[in-house]
Amino acid sequence: MCRCYGVQKVAGVANWFCRKCESQVRMSKIRCDLCPIKEGAFKRSSGARCGWAHLLCAFYIPEVSFEDPVSMDLILLEGVHSDRFGKVSCLPSLEL
């Protein structure tokens, strides 16, 4: 069971894993393309460096879109200006 989203139990599912945990990529290699935070709830992203982004960052930055808006799979970063990548936290109140 994955704990990245704070999920404790999924009804009818023995072992639920988020996309990041499903990928089996070492945690040290994953960071958000939009902010410097390495922990949290990630989804795959396109058009950027690492290939991962926080869902919260995707919601906070208006230029971001989703290939599949219903499942929020594949965060599309092609419209994001390069100044936004990896510079500041996607949460203004979060101190780094």
Explain what this protein looks like in three dimensions.
With 96 residues, the protein is of the alpha+beta class. It has a domain at 31-84. The protein contains two helices and four strands, in the order αββαββ. A hairpin with a 4-residue loop joins strand 3 and strand 4. The longest helix has 6 residues, at 55-60. It is globular and about 40 Å long. The N and C termini lie far apart (28 Å). One of its GO terms (biological process) is regulation of transcription by RNA polymerase II.
Indicate the topology:
Elements: H1 19-23, E1 42-46, E2 52-54, H2 55-60, E3 65-68, E4 73-76
Parallel strand pairs: 1-4
Antiparallel strand pairs: 1-2, 3-4
Please provide a brief summary of the model.
Keywords: Metal-binding, Zinc, Zinc-finger. The chain has 96 residues and is of the alpha+beta class.
Task: Provide keyphrases for this structure.
96 residues, 4-stranded mixed sheet, 4 strands, zinc
Supply the number of helical segments. 2
Report low-confidence residues grouped into runs of 5 or more. none
Strand content: 15-25%
Q: Identify the strand order in the major beta sheet.
A: 2-1-4-3
Calculate the terminal CA-CA distance, rounded to whole Å: 28 Å
Helix percentage range: 10-25%
Helix and strand element order: HEEHEE
Largest sheet entry: 4 strands, mixed
GO molecular function: histone binding; nucleosome binding; zinc ion binding
Domain PHD-type: 29-96
Keywords: Metal-binding, Zinc, Zinc-finger
Protein name: Protein AF-17
